[in-house]
Recover the amino acids of this structure.
């Protein structure tokens, strides 16, 4: 097939980097969760991009994989948000810098 | 290659654990709080026992290239079920003394067991990813179980955010491997021009798994996560997660050789893949292709495993000496032992022999889970007595727990007459036999002439690992001495261990002593 995945992959790379940068830079835990979601979506996008380069049933693997990962990402967001709620109730903050009491 | 078998027969043991989790979940609301902690773990353990029996009769084979079962996978899964039983018992001890209002954590342990079992059996990336996430998503909430304790939130936040990031990294790696091979099976054939993508994918996937294993430089989460979680949860996750990670790394790397082997034999059609092989057996050894020794990339990975492993051994062994919290000490012990496992995987990458890593992880998982489980009985309500001085004399009051702690800790430390000794001895012997393993790995970054000169010095890697193993014994010894010494001023009354905890710990002790005498029982 003549489809070149380069552009989609560059976009996926950008999304992944933005997600990673959000996780590393942002102090609010909500943004950390959002960054992780962005990273997962970048992975999904690259699955789709690669699957377009294969013809026949080989390409289907790459289209099915994102369905699973979307389901997993939803479950992960559930656990993550529940955790944020419980933390916020006891600490009244979601600032990551406030969680550094455990250093030896 | 493994014969194809029926899916239900193959997944039978895992399905029994799923049913156990569901039965526990459905029974939970109908019981009084006191009865929850008395009955639910027994339900879980009885289903785990049934799963163990089913595992014994499960046929070796594979289904659709997705899941496989063979001798080593069976051994790892047997160890996993024992680890889960000990974890349930330890969690029962914790929750009973905390007077925890619900019984759901038992369900989470069973579900995490299902996840790790799928990781062990997976030979397809989707199956692996789902298994990993089922395990992780069940373990995250358990780490934050004690909402009113001060370290708990921080532990769960650190563990969750890092775990989520690394699972995204892992998934991107899977996407790259798919792009380079056209298949999500482990043993898929690389498409020639996409070598770079393939290597990138393997790097990302390996990073994701090394995080789960807790090898330097991906170890920073483990001391905090361990110290903030209830000791029963730590006992389960310390053993189970490492079992899954090592099995998957060994499995992936034998398939990694395979991709290259076929690349060099010229078969590069997208989507071509082969049925899974038994764990620990490399495809080149099955006569599929020549072992591609000349490939620099494989030696690069040898470098990562050997020196990452060595750094973990050094950092973990030295850091555990100064710890007062036992959970924190066992976390650093986990880092050191993950280092030994990485060294064993280094041997695997070079010599295609995974037995050292697999035997080591089985023995380590039983040992560390048992040690932390005794802690759930000895350190009292809320694990508040989780340090050397408060534990003084605890073994005299509860001799069985003290004995289990001593024997299992000896196995973790690698002292003679325990299986830990066999595992460490064999691993170090293999490293000494191939004294050049560290030197060869250095050859990637240093000029050849220098490496040749350095090669005549001495086998650096095994010597450093041996010294660190001996040094860490001092740290473990302090704990054993504390437990058997005179009760101090901070010692309190130690609650009685539950029948389940005593029984499972006796099983773990027997397993550790039996594997020392007969390591062949699980294929070593």
């Amino acid at each position: 097939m003549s489809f070149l995945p380069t552009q989609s992959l560059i976009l996926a790379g950008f999304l992944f980097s933005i997600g990673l940068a959000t996780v590393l830079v942002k102090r609010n835990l909500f943004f950390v969760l959002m960054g992780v979601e962005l990273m997962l979506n970048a992975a999904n996008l690259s699955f789709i991009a690669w699957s377009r380069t294969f013809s026949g049933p080989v390409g289907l693997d790459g289209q099915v994989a994102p369905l699973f990962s979307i389901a997993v990402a939803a479950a992960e967001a559930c656990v993550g948000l529940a955790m944020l709620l419980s933390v916020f109730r006891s600490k009244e903050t979601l600032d990551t810098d406030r969680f550094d009491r455990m250093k030896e | 290659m493994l014969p194809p078998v029926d899916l239900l027969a193959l997944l039978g043991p895992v399905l029994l654990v799923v049913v156990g989790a569901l039965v526990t979940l459905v029974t939970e609301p109908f019981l009084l709080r006191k009865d929850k902690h008395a009955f639910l773990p027994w339900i879980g353990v009885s289903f785990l026992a049934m799963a163990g029996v089913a595992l014994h009769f499960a046929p070796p084979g594979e289904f659709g290239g997705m899941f496989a079962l063979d001798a080593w996978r069976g051994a790892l899964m047997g160890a996993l079920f024992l680890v889960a039983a000990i974890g349930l018992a330890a969690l029962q001890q914790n929750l009973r003394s905390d007077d925890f209002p619900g019984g759901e954590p038992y369900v989470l342990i069973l579900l995490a067991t299902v996840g790790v079992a799928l990781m062990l059996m997976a030979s397809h990336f989707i199956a692996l990813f789902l298994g990993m996430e089922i395990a992780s998503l069940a373990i995250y909430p358990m780490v934050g179980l004690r909402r009113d304790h001060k370290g708990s939130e921080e532990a769960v936040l650190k563990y969750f955010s890092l775990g989520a990031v690394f699972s995204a990294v892992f998934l991107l790696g899977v996407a790259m491997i798919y792009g380079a091979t056209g298949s999500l099976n482990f043993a898929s054939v690389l498409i020639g021009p996409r070598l770079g993508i393939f290597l990138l994918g393997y790097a990302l996937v390996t990073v994701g798994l090394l995080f789960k294993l807790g090898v330097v430089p991906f170890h920073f989460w483990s001391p905090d996560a361990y110290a903030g979680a209830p000791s029963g949860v730590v006992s389960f996750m310390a053993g189970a997660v490492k079992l899954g990670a090592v099995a998957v790394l060994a499995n992936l790397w034998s398939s990694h050789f395979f991709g290259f082997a076929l690349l060099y034999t010229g078969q590069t059609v997208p989507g071509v893949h082969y049925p899974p092989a038994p764990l620990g057996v490399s495809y080149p050894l099955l006569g599929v292709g020549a072992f591609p020794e000349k490939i620099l990339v494989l030696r690069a990975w040898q470098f990562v495993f050997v020196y990452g492993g060595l750094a973990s051994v050094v950092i973990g062994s030295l850091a555990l000496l100064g710890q007062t919290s036992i959970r924190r000490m066992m976390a650093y012990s986990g880092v050191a032992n993950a280092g030994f496992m990485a060294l064993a995987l280094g041997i695997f990458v070079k010599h295609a022999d995974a037995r050292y890593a697999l035997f080591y992880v089985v023995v380590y998982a039983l040992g560390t889970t048992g040690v932390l489980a005794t802690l759930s009985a000895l350190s009292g309500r809320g694990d508040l007595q989780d340090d050397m001085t408060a534990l003084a004399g605890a073994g005299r009051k509860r001799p069985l727990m003290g004995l289990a702690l001593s024997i299992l800790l000896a196995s973790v430390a690698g002292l003679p007459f325990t299986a830990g000794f066999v595992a460490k001895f064999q691993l170090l012997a293999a490293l000494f036999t191939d004294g050049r393993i560290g030197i060869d790995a250095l050859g990637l970054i240093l000029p050849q002439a220098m490496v040749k000169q350095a090669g005549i010095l001495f086998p650096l890697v095994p010597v450093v690992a041996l010294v660190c193993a001996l040094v860490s014994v001092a740290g473990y010894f302090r704990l054993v001495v504390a437990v058997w010494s005179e009760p101090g001023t901070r010692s309190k009354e130690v609650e009685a261990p539950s029948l389940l905890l005593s029984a499972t710990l006796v099983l773990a002790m027997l397993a550790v002593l039996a594997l020392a005498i007969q390591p062949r029982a699980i294929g070593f």
Summary: Chain B touches chain A through 44 residues (CB under 8 Å). Residues 231-263 of chain B form the longest helix (33 residues). Residues 439 and 453 of chain B are 10 Å apart (CA to CA).
